[in-house]
Amino acid sequence: MTESFTQRLLDTLGPDLVALGDDIAERYQSDWAGLPRTRPLALVRPRNTEQVSALMALCHAEGVPVVPQGGRTGISGAAHPRADAVALSLERMTRIEAVDGEAAQIVAEAGVVLEAAQSAARDAGMMLGIDIGSRGSCQLGGVIATNAGGNTVIRYGMARDHVLGLEVVLADGTVIRDMLGLIKNNAGLDVKQLFIGSEGLLGVITRCVLRLQPAPVASETALCAAADTDAVIALLVHVRAALGPQLSGFEVMWPSFYTCMSEGAGVALALPAGGPHVLIEATGFAATALRETVEQALGEALEQGILTDAVLAKSVQEGRRLWAIRESVAEFSTVLGPIVPFDVSIPLHQMSQTVAALEAGIAARWPGARALTYGHIGDNNLHLVVALPESSDTLAETALKTFVYDAIRDCGGSVSAEHGIGAIKRAYLSHTRSEAEIALMRAVKATLDPKAILNPGKSFAG
Questions:
Q1: Is 2-91 assigned to CATH 3.30.43.10?
Q2: CA of residue 353 relative to chain centroid, distance
Q3: 0.90 surpassed by pTM
Q4: What CA–CA distances, in Å, run from 453 to 84, 170, 184?
Q5: 8-state DSSP, 327
Q6: Distance separating alpha carbons of residues 431 and 186, to the nearest angstrom
C-alpha cells in the first residue's frame, strides 16, 4: 500500500513537490517540541492552494494521515511528523498578494514568514500588530492555526483578533474561501473561527486576510523594579489607567529569570537584581506627549510605593538594551541545557500565590532543578522553564509536568496560553476543558474530517 500510494502521490503532484526517504531533510522531521526525530512517509511542498487541494483529496481517498507544517516553531509538537503520514510544508506559499492601506489589511499566503509580513506592512506605512519571538521563522498559517499570542497581546490581542479572512483546504480537498476581509459580516456562522487555533486538525490554512494598524511614530520603554508579585499587579492596574491604549507591552521577569539569564547570557543589568522586574512599552502618535505621560505614570508609581526603582530609556538603542534580558530566551539551551518549557495562563488574582507555589514546589521536589519564571501577565500568560538535574529521567519529567499542570488546574488556569496542545499536552487537556467541551470539539472534527486524517494524535484528535 505504501509504495502504491507514494507512486500515486508522485503521479499526482510530481517530483518537484514530493520528497521521499533520504531526500526528506532533517528539519522536516521535528519541531521545537524536542520530540524524537521522525521521518515522514513523504514530504510535500506545494506552491499553491490547488496543489494542497489535490494532495488532501488523494490522502482522503487513501486514508493516509497528513501533518501540516508551518515554521515548526511551536513547543507543543503540533507540527511533529509521523512515520505513516505525509508532512505538508507550506513554506513555498510565500506570496504577499496585497497590502491595502485604505482598508488596513494585508492579503498573504500561509507560508509567508511573520517578519516579512511585518516588513510589508511597514513599507505601506502600517503595522501588523502580531509580534512573537520567532518572527523570523514562524509562518502566518502556523501563527493562525495556533492562535499565537506574543509581546503585544495586551494592546492588539491574540492572532484571532487580526484575522479578517481565511482560505482553508478541508480534509477531502474542498476549498473554503472566506476572503472578503470585511470587519462586519454576520451572514451566518463565522466559519473561519473554526480553524483559528485548531492546530491543523480541521483544515489546512492556505491564505489569509489580516487586519493592519496605524504605525505608531513614538515608543517609550521602561524597566521597573517591584518588591513582589502583588506590587507588579498593582503596577499593571496603574499603567493601564494612566496609559490606556498606549500600553503595548508589559513583560514580567521574576528574580529567577532576571538573575540567571543576565548572568548566563552576559547581559548588563540596568537595575540591580532583587524582586520582580517589569518591562513596560508604550507607543503612540505624539512623541513629546507620550514621554510626558510615561514619566508621570512612573513617577506616580514610585511616589505611591508601587515601584522601588525605574529607568526610562533615552533612545531606541537604550530601549533595545533594556529588552535584552527578556529576549535572551533564545539562549536557554546554552545557559540551562535541556529544559522542560511550560506555557500557561493564570487568573490575575491567583498569580502571586501560584508563581510562589510553583517555584517553591519545584525546588523542594527536585533539588538541583533550575526554574525560571517570566511572562506577559497582563494577558494572564506565564512562562516557566525548568532545567532538571542531569540525573533526571523520563519519569521525573512526567512528574514535573503533572505537578505544574495540576497547580494550573487548581488555580482555575489554562494548560496552554499561546502554544496549543499538540502532542505534548494531550494528557492534560481535561485540566482546562470539560468532557462536554472536548466532546464538542471531537464532533466538529468528525464532521469536517470523517476519516480522521488531519494531524491525528494531536490535541483533541483521536
A1: yes
A2: 25
A3: yes
A4: 11, 11, 34
A5: G
A6: 33
